[in-house]
Amino acid sequence: MDTCLLLDAGSGGLASQRLTAQCFLRHFANPLLARLDDAALLRDVHAPIAVSTDSYTVTPLLFPGGSIGTLAVHGTVNDVSMLGARPQYISCGFILEEGLSLELLESLVQDMAGAAKEAGVLIVTGDTKVVPRGACDKMFINTTGIGSIFADPTPSGHNARVGDAVLVSGALGDHGLTIMGSREHLSFLSDVTSDSAPLNHMIAEVINAAGPVHVLRDPTRGGLAATLNEISEQSGVSMLLEEEAIPVHESVKSGCSFLGLDPLYLANEGKCICILPENRAEDALAAMRASPYGVEAARIGTVVGDKACRVTLQTRIGGRRILSMPEGVPLPRIC
Amino acid sequence: MTFETALHDPKLCRVLLARLTRALDGRSMRFMEVCGTHTVSIFQSGLRSLLPASITHLSGPGCPVCVTHDVDVAAFLELAGREKIVFATFGDLLRVPGPGGQTLKHAKAAGAHVEIVYSPLEVLTLAVSNPDNVIVFPGIGFETTAPAVAATLLTARQKKIKNFCVFSLHKLVPPALRTLLDEEGDNAANIEAFLLPGHVSTILGIAPYAFLADKHRIPGVVGGFEPADILLALCRMAEQLRDNAPAVVNAYPRAVNDAGNPKARALMEEVFITTDALWRGIGRIEQSGLAVRPDYADMDAAVRLGVRLVETPQQQPGCCCGDVLKGRIIPTTCPLFGEKCTPAVPVGPCMVSTEGSCAAYYKYLEH
User: Fold this and answer.
1) CB-based contact, A322 to chain B, within 8 Å
2) Which pLDDT band holds residue A333 (cuts at 50, 70, 90)?
3) Contact A316 B8 (CB under 8 A)
4) Among residues A90, A114, A149, which one ends one of the domains?
5) Whole domain around residue B107: which residue ranges?
6) B75-116 tens-digit pLDDT
7) Which residue range forms the structural domain that includes residue A84?
8) Which of A52, A79, A151, B205 has its CA 20 to 30 A from that of B69?
9) Any CB–CB contact under 8 A between A307 and chain B?
10) Within this chain, do residues A117 and A219 fall inside the same structural domain, yes or no?
11) Which intervals hold domain PurM-like C-terminal (chain A) (predicted)?
């Protein structure tokens, strides 16, 4: 067998069949996928349905705490979950670069399979394209997730209400800093690990314990700052946060301090923001903390009535400042 | 408890705020901080919202990106666009607009090979792995970064790495402060005290700032970057003003030696020579920049690659960055602030860098 991917594997002929059988069918193994029809037949998805799609283009493909494979499953599972849905099925499209190591491809497919298994979702349909060397950076993955909604009413960024509590399911900034560290080989960031994780089980427990919540969002690109600003705009409210209460690991704090970055603007891949009526906050927190992915969950602030739609931070020393929407990619500073 | 945590302690900060209020004794104080990291810390920590109302906080010309002149940006954009050049830079330079609003981001999208690096030494690794290209590193920054760049040149020579050169745009802090204070008449600076840059002072020590107190009778206090560090420095300034005893002192002794770092200065001396430099918003300041010495001309991008500096019209109409950098106005006074000039579409340099004072006002304050 070849050790690297040839253009033939995207031809639709025998070479494609071999790749599908030996790699994708083998690791994603499930009867719905194995039928290999043009589309997957799903009988147990009931309206209302949540659908979400995302494309994954991370460099490097492997990083401490995960890989593009785990991200491609976790990211989509989490997006579907944020609507109060139980993610059930995932489709996945691969764009692969000619010359990609087959061993690497297989290990990333195994990562996807493992992540799907933990989340309890099936990868039921897919597509593979192989593009000439240089036409993509090793591997791009698109996944679409689908699931039945069980929360009624469904959470939405438009539903934050004055007096609601703002919760976060754990420490912030780990994923963004990990990617930066491993991309640039920054040895002083060696103790930072991505938080990539499936949150669907935890979300289900939170809604079981606390009842319908007003808002669920995962603070991915743009971090906590971007997500809370978006919610404030959508809901027409402001928020007041306690900096002291926002969980950030010491390693992330010191790495950010060195690079001139703010952890509240860095991406997370295994955290959610939950906004709900104050009297149910403790139940929701307890449900989060009972999950391995919510041990460091905390209440970080309150929704307030100011119509300016701004997020204000009460700082550790007792001062106040705006937590504004980020502009572009966070760039490390000169000195 | 780490230093960082201890120096964010609300109780300690309250004690220092009370000491500051006592020292002010009802008087006002206009202080300027010279370092962009101070600017960010003062805003990010929320310290600014706690300072007594009688304190006016001004941000000076200490953000390296902010003071990089249009002429120099145009020159490195031209360099970056050349064939067989890898332009290796610190990240925050990517957003700096040159003439016509063009940035390194635009150059990159148009095909320039731009790499973000985190230390000058990393550039040598790039040079070794790109033997067919010349790696150009823009030497931007103050006395803090110049020694590391000097060390990189020396390492390159020692390791016989031939495809590496520096486009030196380094600037020196004391000449800029002199220029601010030497202005007269309508342009005269209205600054009563300086918060001196902690990082730069680790290299320089405190002697180069002596003229502040000796000639201008203005207190200068070297301060650290945590809220309590800054408050302590402000207390020392206010006490000097109260006692009419201006002096240049070091309130950051855990990092700064009064004599600075002679070894780092020797490295700078070996590789660089002082030269006139263009400061964005301020103009030409004599002997305020560092050029590569002729002995190292093979690693001087300006010489080796024949960089031409083309004069451009200096600022956009209406932009008051010059007045902001000189401490004459605060950013919100500028008619463009927040309307025509935002971090998304920065007109002037102070809005470009995350450490620029206009960007800090926009990002952290209600407006």
Assistant:
1) yes
2) low
3) yes
4) A149
5) 69-172+263-305
6) 999 999 999 999 999 888 888 888 888 889 999 999 999 998
7) 4-149
8) B205
9) no
10) no
11) 161-313
